[in-house]
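Long-time lurker. I teach an intro course on protein structure, and each term I like to show students one example going from raw sequence to a predicted 3D structure in token notation. This year I'd like something fresh instead of my usual example. Would anyone be willing to generate the tokens for the chain below so I can use it in lecture? Attribution to the forum is fine with me.
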Amino acid sequence: MSADVRWMTAMLDSPPESTDASEAFWLGVTGARLSPSRGRRHEFASLLPRDGDATLKVQRVVQSSPGAMHLDLHSDDVPGLAERVELLGGSTSYHVLGYVICGSPGGLSFCVVGHPGRRIPSPVAWPGGRSLVDQVCLDIPPHAYDDEVAFWRALTGWELVDCGARELGRLRRPGSAPFALLLQRLADEQSTTTVHLDLSCDDREAETSRHLALGAEVLDVRTGWTVLHDPAGRSYCITGRRPGDV
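-- Reply from a regular --
Happy to contribute to a lecture. Here you go:
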């Protein structure tokens, strides 16, 4: 068995009071349909794309903070990948049958799980052009940036691409993985590394208007991306990258 990162899933964690709104919003954003719920408390479901395997899942959690998210890294060898996490300076805190809860050097929680996907979803066509959730961005405090870049580069084995800005690096995904990893050095310190989703699209203005109609709120507009909140208070970005680029 291989302990490589074979697939990634983004888990959208929402408190009970905003779960329904969060699910409806992301179903509208992606054009997916919701799977039957599962788990002991029926707290999990997948967003099933029009083609390909799921890259987004939803989880109902008890928390007081606004909507959050975490990553699941999929591998054929869950214990082997968890061991690599520790060897590279990360941590593991909870081992159960089928998955391990881990932490990066900068304190980002993620899970190592089995059952990797195989088929990457295609960009979805809308009246204003295509769009696709195809990148996750790690928001890294300055004190942890070098360690986080080294950790994720070694854990994934992916190529580090120069983005032309000191505060940004990108791990180019292989053709078999659904998400690239953007590594962003924050201007200000925070206690831990956090993560948010990025979408690519053909027309950023049209895509932003579509999200606003679904219930999003614009927080900031930059040269290459627009920062928004979803109905659960979860930050994410619409970028000007071409859908489907690796």
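Some talking points for your students: The mean pLDDT is 93. The chain has two domains: 7-113, 124-239.
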